[in-house]
Amino acid sequence: MSRFLGEIRQLGYVVHDIEAAMDYWSTTLGVGPWFYNPKVPIRNYRYNGQPHEPHNSVALANSGYVQVELIQTRNDVPSMYRDFLQAGRTGLQHVAYWTADYDADLARLTAQGFKPVMSGEVGERGRFIYFDTEYHPGTVIELSEVAGPKGKMFDLIRSASEGWDGSEPVRPFPDLSKL
């Protein structure tokens, strides 16, 4: 547990082929089921202060209490994921901390000198922000708001993983507007 941010709740892996990655994680590692969204509806996306329209595919599953996120970029929009790939890397790109008090945690982190690089929203009260904290691959820090439907979806994904028997290894993302 981080004495600054609480528990790491998510490990984010950037991959070239999300379908192959889901197959590997579910078949070889036994992690699943995967909740897959071929085009995540990101609103108010910004990278280095500039707005863009990313097309990212994401799959989420839990291994115990920790969520695993697989990310594949589908367009060439500037992002920390694209930077990671262009540096010749794949695999663990970030760790995420979840918060129900996004504004207070964001203020605290920026006051400590964390510099925002990439941000956006997924659903109501589902803001996220990535900081310029990469000192080696996999150390980028994401702060993810879970006060709204995104948090309910994360709970549903964790519940689905408990006692998962390997059936239906890939499932569609729940509709955030109905959570």
Automatic annotation (TrEMBL):
<dbReference type="InterPro" id="IPR029068">
    <property type="entry name" value="Glyas_Bleomycin-R_OHBP_Dase"/>
</dbReference>
<dbReference type="GO" id="GO:0046872">
    <property type="term" value="F:metal ion binding"/>
</dbReference>
<dbReference type="GO" id="GO:0046491">
    <property type="term" value="P:L-methylmalonyl-CoA metabolic process"/>
</dbReference>
<feature type="domain" description="VOC">
    <location>
        <begin position="7"/>
        <end position="146"/>
    </location>
</feature>
<dbReference type="GO" id="GO:0004493">
    <property type="term" value="F:methylmalonyl-CoA epimerase activity"/>
</dbReference>
<dbReference type="Pfam" id="PF13669">
    <property type="entry name" value="Glyoxalase_4"/>
</dbReference>
<keyword id="KW-0479">Metal-binding</keyword>
<dbReference type="InterPro" id="IPR051785">
    <property type="entry name" value="MMCE/EMCE_epimerase"/>
</dbReference>
<dbReference type="InterPro" id="IPR037523">
    <property type="entry name" value="VOC_core"/>
</dbReference>
<protein>
    <submittedName>
        <fullName>VOC family protein</fullName>
    </submittedName>
</protein>
